[in-house]
Amino acid sequence: MQERIQIIQGDITRQNVDAIVNAANCSLLGGGGVDGAIHRAAGPELLAECRTLHGCETGKAKITKGYRLPAKYVIHTPGPIWQGGRYGERELLASCYRSCLELASANGCKTVDFPSISTGVYHFPLKCASQIAIRTIAGYLAGHPEIERVRMVCFDADTESFYRRALEELEAGV
Ligand code: ADP
Question: How much distance in Å is there from the Cα of 155 to the middle of ligand 1?
């Protein structure tokens, strides 16, 4: 099971996979961080399609084409803004990962790459976010053989080390 989950360091806009996930905001009209990078790399056609979607609720997801990206699709999900942990942030983050994987399955995507949702300007604590991400992805994959591989594409070494540890903990049954 766990060999279907991989952790790499890199730029998600350069990955040649069926779908990359965008850590978007609820407007779906672009922003900073990974969202800005994805829109820059995909070109203006991505924003044009996003305008037709009329936004997205936190924890849900919507899919578009990838346009000038090597990826075929972009799955956009607004992660929760960390507000101390008493506002359902953990459940909403898990819901982001699940909603994206459900859309990937529904659209025939076999390979899916995620960025570290909510741990940038949304300030979700990295340790907690990485554990939620890995456990939610593993839980989904267990019941969905149609998804062959999911990668966490971490932009920096510190982020990568947290996801690596979360995956090791899962494999060790911690
Ligand atoms: P959020 O608003 O969900 O916190 P951010 O874009 O601020 O989203 O950050 C989410 C994560 O994406 C951070 O770890 C950030 O370093 C990372 N990131 C930024 N650009 C890229 C990129 N091109 N590829 C992969 N990850 C990226």
Answer: 7
